[in-house]
Amino acid sequence: MHPDISPIAADLGIAPEHLILHGRHMAKVSLKALHNKPQRGRLILVSAITPTPAGEGKTTVSIGLSQGLKKIGQSVALALRQPSMGPVFGRKGGATGGGKSTVLPAHSINLHFTGDFHAITCAHNLLSAVIDNQLFLGETRLSPDRVLWKRVMDMNDRALRSVRTAVGKPTERATGFDITAASEIMAIMCLAESLPDLRHRLERIVVGFTAEGDPVYAREFRVTGAMMALLREALPPNLVQSVEGVPAFLHGGPFANIAHGCNSVLATRMALAHADFAVTEAGFAFDLGGEKFMHIKCRQSGLAPAAIVIVATVRALKMHGGAALDQLTQTDTAALSRGLDNLAAHLDSAAQFQRPVIVAVNQFTNDHPDELALVHEFCQSRGVPSATANVFGEGGAGAVELAEKVLAALTPEVPQLPFLYQPDDSVETKLTAIATKIYGADGVLLTEEAKAKLALFARSGFDKLPLCMAKTQDSLSDDAKKRGRPRGFTITVRDFEIANGAGFLVALTGTMMRMPALPKVPAAERIQVTDDGIMSGI
């Protein structure tokens, strides 16, 4: 049996009337719990190197680090994303950590949880339905061939990337589905700080343009109130706990390869208000989640991390050094040495934000001591603290050294973030800053389609928004096959999408899709439920 959540909330100082129970083991925390609560905590951001397809355990390390901090007597809370069922049933499986560094109840969290994803999906698709209804009735100034707003679902399904609606009707048009994690409403919920802020953001969503090129906003369809009704109970953060009793605020789940990749601002503020340290994560590697954490989440909220932890694994470094995916369990110090260039790239990127950086080597059972030593020698040569973290096998005990090195690296004051671009910069300047300073590219190329879309957005001032890059997570470049630290490449932007409610412009690079596909053997095939209701395989 999982332990009850009420004592965890009480230990945080959350009043019983601010706890909205979803059974015994999960709860939402009323936004009233933040009223007049100072942000006492220091924020620790966990990111990673470019991952293998299976991921490098960034969430597991985040949980383990928090448990390690608790082991050495620190007051700590987690602020993490909640899983999407797309990866749960797709390539990666569940996203609640692993082994002795897991958040509970894992099965519930990985599936329906408290219903936040369903609420976001419904609110998004309600707006979609009303748009199509008003197009059919001729009651909107929106041009049918300039509708940008798609539909969403929380599942990987490549067949839904391109669909046609109203077939045979005068308003027939091409559209498609994105995954719910890529919905602008997901981003809005993760960035909104109150119900009034949520309403304002929903109202300013741009759903498309008139024939003359003027923006059409969601507020014109008169269903903001209905969308608020669907999202009202989803906005408060969710509270669960790790296997070692560390409180965990899990809320929001945008992907960092197609969205901004960070948990909600409200969940982060809850953790900072109720603990001395808040451990959070940014999706995929630092070039994706880390960069967006700084330029989108921190810029909008005023948050700033006190330290950055970069998760590396021996297996991923060997992959970047040329080892085949089916050979990553074999000892190969030569491939590992070559692959360290990928770690170097992410350390260089993180250093630009002027925070202490610590490397966490997430240990796997097949890692050879010589391989681990090689990674630490490399970090030492760069003057970067590092620690092996056996958080899967040992939980908090396996992260004590990491926790101690994080604490030792902290400075008395948290400096202001030095952003790499300013909102008033041209889109080309912003793109170049990210591509050259974070990805290591020589420059950026815009297709003619991208230039035309950008010109349309610029007419209404949307070019002054921060950028959210949609880029493959498999490479620092926009080519998934380029491992290691690619050089001599150009980032190609093929299209732009507007997320005015969320407050950013999405640049689509390479072949990136906002609706993922299932792999040949999806994780769903290994999930089973016994006649007694016992679930396995997640």
Please tell me about this protein's structure.
- The protein has 538 residues and is an alpha/beta fold.
- The chain folds into three domains: 36-114 and 234-409, 3-Layer(aba) Sandwich (Rossmann fold), CATH 3.40.50.300; 123-156 and 179-231, 2-Layer Sandwich (Domain 2, N(10)-formyltetrahydrofolate synthetase); 427-509, Formyltetrahydrofolate synthetase, domain 3 (Roll).
- Helices cover 34% and strands 19% of the residues.
- It has 17 helices and 24 strands.
- Strands 1, 2, 3, 4, 5, 6, 13, 14, 15, 16, 17 and 18 form a twelve-stranded mixed sheet that branches.
- Helix 2 crosses helix 15, helix 5 packs across helix 6 and helix 12 (333-351) packs parallel to helix 13 (369-381).
- The radius of gyration is 22 Å and the shape is globular.
- The two termini are 18 Å apart.
- The relative contact order is 0.16.
- The mean pLDDT is 96.
Please describe the topology of this protein.
Layout: H1 6-12, E1 19-21, E2 27-29, E3 42-48, H2 58-71, E4 76-80, H3 85-89, E5 97-98, E6 101-104, H4 106-110, H5 116-137, E7 151-153, E8 163-165, E9 173-175, E10 177-179, H6 184-191, H7 195-203, E11 206-209, E12 215-217, H8 224-231, E13 238-242, E14 247-250, H9 265-274, E15 277-281, H10 286-301, E16 307-312, H11 314-320, H12 333-351, E17 357-362, H13 369-381, E18 386-389, H14 391-394, H15 400-409, H16 427-439, E19 443-446, H17 448-458, E20 467-470, E21 490-499, E22 504-509, E23 528-529, E24 535-536
Parallel strand pairs: 3-15, 3-16, 4-14, 4-15, 7-10, 16-17, 17-18, 19-21, 20-22
Antiparallel strand pairs: 1-2, 2-13, 5-6, 6-13, 8-9, 11-12, 13-14, 21-22, 23-24
Helix pairs in contact: 2-15, 5-6, 5-8, 7-8, 11-12, 12-13
